[in-house]
Specification:
The protein has 216 residues and is mainly beta. 4% of the residues lie in helices and 48% in strands.
Length: 216
């Protein structure tokens, strides 16, 4: 049986990824000025930042949504899905603001969840939205992990450690090793002070329906 091919108009964006937190949304961007951090570097060096496009595609109907249209001097970061809405990070370098937006596809509206001065962060390196709740996090090149909104916390982690998700007052991180073989372990830290509460071999994966799988 011949399978029909569905054509999706993506304005030249030829790669899409599953949207974190959703079983049926995908997202894609054109990276016109690189990633968010590279766009910031261009702006700091006096170059014009060409804004990127951020498109969402719904499965299985293939409906395409572009809830936010960035302007010159603005750049869109990696989105996530939270509590039934598309959560979008927009940095306005010209006005020195960080915007956290939430788009409701069913109601066809986009609202501002929060905004922060760009001076809140040292730079946009690994600046991204995370859950749960909806948070703005940053993992800098100095191995410092930060939650910047809606509350604030900051502590140092290991260089090969990366944030996974939050569960109550516990933060889960993945830590990889090569000694000499590659292996991973999961680190559980206290929200406020970063104290290690638990660590175990294996990795965690959050599935589209919200289940958390431990791979050992």
């Amino acid at each position: 049986m011949n399978q029909p091919i569905k054509e999706i108009e993506m304005q030249g964006i030829l790669s899409i990824d599953p949207l974190e937190g959703s079983p049926d949304w995908y997202w894609g961007t054109d990276y016109t000025s690189g990633d968010l951090y590279e766009a910031e570097e261009l702006f700091r060096d006096g170059h014009l930042v060409v804004q990127n496009k951020l498109l969402f595609v719904h499965y299985p109907d293939g409906k395409v949504l572009q809830p936010v249209f960035a302007q010159k001097g603005q750049y869109l970061g990696r989105p996530i899905f939270y509590e039934g809405k598309l959560a979008i990070l927009l940095v306005d370098f010209s006005r020195e603001k960080i915007w956290i937006l939430q788009a409701d596809a069913a109601k066809k509206r986009t609202d501002v969840a929060a905004w922060l001065p760009l001076s809140t962060v040292e730079d946009c390196y690994n600046l991204m939205l995370s859950a749960s709740p909806l948070m703005l996090t940053r993992q800098g090149g100095d191995d410092k992990f930060q939650i910047l909104w809606p509350e604030k916390t900051s502590f140092f982690i290991e260089s090969s450690e990366s944030f996974l998700f939050r569960n109550g007052d516990r933060l889960y991180f993945s830590l990889w090793h090569e000694d000499p073989d590659y292996w991973e372990e999961t680190i559980v830290r206290h929200l406020k002070i970063g104290e290690i509460l638990n660590r175990f071999s294996g990795s965690l994966r959050t599935m589209p329906d919200g289940q958390i799988w431990a791979l050992k």
